[in-house]
Amino acid sequence: MPTCKECNDEVTKLVSVKVGGKAQKLCPDCADRAREAAEIGEASESVMQGMMGYKGRR
Fold first, then answer.
1. Taking the CB of residue 38, how many other CB atoms lie within 10 A of it?
2. Which residues, 6 or more positions from 26, have their beta carbon under 8 angstroms from its beta carbon?
Protein backbone atom coordinates (compact mmCIF):
# COMPACT_ATOMS: atom_id res chain seq x y z
CA MET A 1 0.00 0.00 0.00
CA PRO A 2 1.30 3.49 -0.81
CA THR A 3 1.89 5.94 2.03
CA CYS A 4 0.95 9.64 2.03
CA LYS A 5 3.97 11.91 2.59
CA GLU A 6 1.94 14.41 4.63
CA CYS A 7 -0.05 12.31 7.11
CA ASN A 8 1.96 9.03 6.84
CA ASP A 9 -1.25 6.98 6.45
CA GLU A 10 -1.53 4.05 4.09
CA VAL A 11 -4.00 4.87 1.32
CA THR A 12 -5.32 3.11 -1.77
CA LYS A 13 -4.60 6.01 -4.13
CA LEU A 14 -2.10 8.90 -4.18
CA VAL A 15 -2.55 12.19 -6.03
CA SER A 16 0.36 14.20 -7.42
CA VAL A 17 0.24 17.87 -6.34
CA LYS A 18 2.74 20.70 -6.79
CA VAL A 19 3.59 22.23 -3.41
CA GLY A 20 6.18 24.98 -3.32
CA GLY A 21 7.32 24.19 -6.86
CA LYS A 22 7.86 20.49 -6.13
CA ALA A 23 5.53 17.63 -6.98
CA GLN A 24 4.46 15.55 -4.00
CA LYS A 25 2.31 12.45 -3.87
CA LEU A 26 -0.37 12.92 -1.24
CA CYS A 27 -3.67 11.31 -0.33
CA PRO A 28 -6.75 13.09 -1.74
CA ASP A 29 -7.56 14.78 1.60
CA CYS A 30 -4.05 16.18 2.06
CA ALA A 31 -3.95 17.19 -1.62
CA ASP A 32 -7.12 19.27 -1.17
CA ARG A 33 -5.64 20.96 1.92
CA ALA A 34 -2.39 21.70 0.06
CA ARG A 35 -4.28 23.24 -2.88
CA GLU A 36 -6.36 25.41 -0.56
CA ALA A 37 -3.26 26.59 1.30
CA ALA A 38 -1.56 27.50 -2.00
CA GLU A 39 -4.62 29.45 -3.18
CA ILE A 40 -4.82 31.35 0.12
CA GLY A 41 -1.10 32.15 -0.10
CA GLU A 42 -1.41 33.50 -3.64
CA ALA A 43 -4.45 35.60 -2.72
CA SER A 44 -2.77 37.09 0.34
CA GLU A 45 0.36 37.89 -1.67
CA SER A 46 -1.78 39.65 -4.28
CA VAL A 47 -3.54 41.73 -1.62
CA MET A 48 -0.23 42.68 0.01
CA GLN A 49 1.24 43.75 -3.33
CA GLY A 50 -1.86 45.85 -3.99
CA MET A 51 -1.54 47.56 -0.61
CA MET A 52 2.12 48.36 -1.27
CA GLY A 53 1.40 49.66 -4.79
CA TYR A 54 3.54 47.04 -6.53
CA LYS A 55 3.08 47.37 -10.30
CA GLY A 56 5.69 44.86 -11.56
CA ARG A 57 5.40 41.26 -12.54
CA ARG A 58 5.07 38.43 -10.11
1. 14
2. 4, 5, 6, 14, 15, 17, 34
Ranges of H-type helices in 1-58: 28-52
Distance from C-alpha of 34 to C-alpha of 29, rounded to nearest angstrom: 9
Q: Centre a 10 Å sphere on the Cβ of residue 3 and count the other Cβ atoms it contains.
A: 13
Amino acid at 34: A
pTM: 0.74
Count of C-beta atoms within a 10 Å radius of residue 6? 17
pLDDT averaged over the chain?
A: 90
Residue 21 one-letter amino acid: G
